[in-house]
Design brief:
Length: 216
């Protein structure tokens, strides 16, 4: 089973992908996480992406498509994958279809996490992650069970993303509206798009997703 998560920044794509990954034995592919790893390594890709990411702009299609193509060719993706943060432009959606067709794969489900813009800024500015295992938390809606201790791995170290500042969120939302929202009809046309109310608590969002998955 191959899945795409669509939705604006802060909609809950990463949170839900991680849950699905465990439940259905799929591999989560987050292009944002991959790019942040490249930036941290100081690779050529990282150098090209860094300033764009810091200002909330999308990185160029050719760079991201190349990165994604080599990732889904890896053997662990054969059991099925969850795309989190890709595709984000019509060019990426078309390139994805072409690369999947060439390797006899296809996308089964597109899950669109629908969240009103006015709550995204608060979600994003309250976001932090475990520095060791990457589990995502929120100061208000989703704190660790024990203050300062990661639920998943017990680590005491957390970090925040450089682009989770309020000024940058405005730019990211603009990019989403201009470049990413227009790909929704592309998937709607083929009957693969399922809209999920992403404004409910995390467990209720998961329950809606499970209902869609049960129908597959
Ligand atoms: P995305 O990957 O779409 O940017 P995340 O999964 O990182 O989104 O979630 C953004 C922030 O919102 C995180 O702090 C996360 O803990 C929180 N969050 C995720 N899902 C929900 C939800 N259903 N209700 C409230 N907060 C949520
Ligand atoms: P979000 O929480 O906004 O969904 P991501 O972690 O998916 O964040 O992405 C962070 C940044 O990485 C984006 O603002 C963009 O600069 C870059 N990025 C991630 N995925 C893509 C993509 N598919 N195409 C272009 N840029 C991307
Ligand atoms: Zn952890």
């Amino acid at each position: 089973m191959n899945i795409i998560f669509l939705g604006p920044p802060g909609a809950g794509k990463g949170t839900q992908s991680k849950l699905l990954e465990e439940r259905y034995g799929l591999v989560q592919i987050s292009t944002g996480d991959m790019l942040r790893a490249e930036v941290a390594r100081g690779s050529e890709t990282g150098q090209q992406a860094k300033s764009l990411m810091e200002t909330g702009r999308l990185v160029p299609d050719d760079l991201i498509i190349k990165m994604l193509e080599s990732r889904i060719a890896q053997p662990d993706c054969a059991k099925g994958f969850i795309l989190d943060g890709f595709p984000r432009t019509t060019g990426q959606a078309e390139a994805l279809d072409a690369m999947l067709k060439a390797s006899n794969k296809h996308i089964d489900v597109v899950l669109f996490l629908d969240v009103d813009e006015d709550i995204l800024a608060d979600r994003i500015s309250g976001r932090f992650t475990c520095a060791k295992c990457g589990a995502t938390y929120n100061e208000v809606s989703n704190p660790p069970k024990q203050d300062g201790v990661c639920d998943s791995c017990g680590s005491h170290e957390f970090k925040r993303r450089a682009d989770d500042k309020r000024e940058t969120v405005v730019e990211r939302l603009k990019e989403y509206r201009k470049l990413t929202a227009p790909i929704l009809p592309f998937y709607e046309k083929t009957g693969r798009l399922h809209a999920i109310n992403g404004m409910l608590p995390t467990s209720e969002v998961t329950a809606q997703i499970e209902t869609v998955m049960a129908g597959q």
